[in-house]
Amino acid sequence: xKAEIIAVGTELLLGQIxxxxxxYISQRLAVVGVDVFYHTVVGDNAVRIRQCIETACKxxxxxxxTGGLGPTMDDLTxxxxxxxxxxxxxxxxxxxxxxxxxxxxxxxxMVESNKRQANVIDGADVLKNSTGLAVGNAxxxxxxxxxxxxxxPREMKPMLDNEAIPWLKSQQLIDQSSLYTRMLKFAGIGESxxxxxxxxxxxxxxxxxxxxxxxxxEVLVRLAVKGTDQHEAxxxxxxxxxxxxxxxxxxLYAAKDVxxxxxxxxxLSLLGMTLSAAESCTGGMFADMITxxxxxxxxFAGGAVTYSNEMKERILGVPHELxxxxxxxxAVSEPTAKAMAEGMRDIADTDFTVAITGxxxxxxxxxxxxxxxxxxxxxxxxxxxxxxxxxxxxxEGIRRRTVYAIMYRLWRRLQDRAVHIH
Length: 422
Hints:
Largest sheet: 6 strands, mixed
CATH architecture of the largest domain: 3-Layer(aba) Sandwich
Strand content: 15-25%
Number of strands: 17
Shape: elongated
CATH superfamily of the largest domain: MoaB/Mog-like domain
Strand order of the largest sheet: 2-1-3-8-7-6
CATH topology of the largest domain: Molybdenum Cofactor Biosythetic Enzyme, Chain A
Number of domains: 3
Distance between the termini: 50 Å
Helix content: 40-55%
Structural class: alpha/beta
Number of helices: 15
Radius of gyration: 29 Å
CATH class of the largest domain: Alpha Beta
């Protein structure tokens, strides 16, 4: 079955609100094995809504509408579709009774236009609205299935889950198999490198599909398989995940919906270890991402954003001769990154300390191009390790990639610690 989601509302075209409904519907349909091929947005105009429906009917079997079911004259979805199908409109009596009771209970006069929310296309099944007044419609006509849902997400979501999807199942439009997915998360590797390592699996995929998605500083791999139950799907997903782990285990930090900062906080907590940070070009982004994780106060002692040379000297004790002078290596250098890590480690007395200094842009120099970054990790009882990075992107992208780069290296250190303990 080819499904198309049609969002009706001029406010969507103007960018006044974001079309989150389409995302939610696509996710829910994927779970029950319905393939969504198109997302369409159309304004509150009868001619264009009609054209949109005509186009959709030529390429899709299931049309799911959101919006245009309200009481105003520009809520046109039901009117246009009823006219196209040559059907009349009737009132749903339970919906009318609910509406009348609600207005009476609030002591508000119900204007005539509100009755439009109880309209039902002749022959359609009513989809009850548990959180609002506008009823949904569901019907089949000449081989095409139409499902009409309200626009407000708080009304649309429960109607989709509790009314529309069960209706589709009752019409035997959805088979018994569902789509099960698993998201694998990788760091320390780019999308092209990861895809190259999995190319044969991607090209040969049959039952379990593999898709890669690049994000700032990390790569996601989505595994998807159809099955009659979770156990059947897990057996297939486990096989593919294990093969991917065999190839890219050193980059695979999670096989569930958790972030790298969450994984770090969890590992530090399990190992009973602490962390601190000294940041320059990232401006506290590392500390912000760590402290956004509940429970981080148990492992993160604190950090310092030493943006200027003066603050690097005064707070972290970075030697003046490293920062200023004709032959000084400067703030963006390996010696300075090492000194920052050393200074923060002495202040915080933590098991791990990270330090970051670099050029995020747009300003740069011949010797210090945009994207030049030095990261350092100080581990108690070990030599401080400093690494030079050459990153691409805009200012925000470079900052974020830097944070993920040092988080990945810290994760690798913690992995090694965990292995040695066990």
